[in-house]
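Below is the data:
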Amino acid sequence: MELSVSKKSWAIGTVQERQYWEEKFEIAKSFMKLRSSIPTVLIEIAAQHPLVNGEKPNEEFAHRLLLAKALYEKECISGKYVEIYVPGSRHVHEGIPDKISLSEAGCIFLEQQGISREFIHGNNLNIKYKGDRGVYNSADECFVASSYFKDANFGCLFSVLSPVQVFRKTIHYVEFGVIPLNYTAPTLNTFHDYIDEIFEAVPYALFVDPDMQSENSERASELRRLRIPKDL
């Protein structure tokens, strides 16, 4: 695909980098258009650590899960078939490991909200698409969700996330060939920091390592070092 891309004098990045993303976006947009008539929805919920007492979603995570529940119910009422994916392996934060995975905590929470487990995915998809490497960052979440979205022939993809994460996760999703409908669940206190996102996380995803799936990925390796419990 050849696109004519001109670089504005004040724009960041090279013409080649802009063209790369223009092409990626057009490919993803075309793919989503092909799927748009299929009346099925996959809802991915960005997980958030640490868990309360090592086993329950914290406030930010719970807000996302509740928003996903509302979206699930709305889409079901409209006649669509809907499944939910809650990502996240077991994490450690500041030396304290969670007792269960973020996925399992989120799945239990949604079950307690009345959603049948048969429509909720967690560790099963983590293992299917990431194996023993686990799901430890937003890129992993997007990789698993986009892979299952494609394999299971879904028509629409929702991503429920922090407003701080929107651009970075969209970059990862476009890299994997899909475009989500983003739904944010803002809270007063957020784990992610806007300044870190703007100056570090987003530029890294945009210009250095869009998929973070290689074992040599510097950022992915650092996050795994910080987040994988030592007893795993």
Q: What stands out?
A: Helices lie at 15-35, 59-77, 102-112, 123-130, 138-151, 166-175, 194-208, 218-227. The chain is about 45% helix and 10% strand.
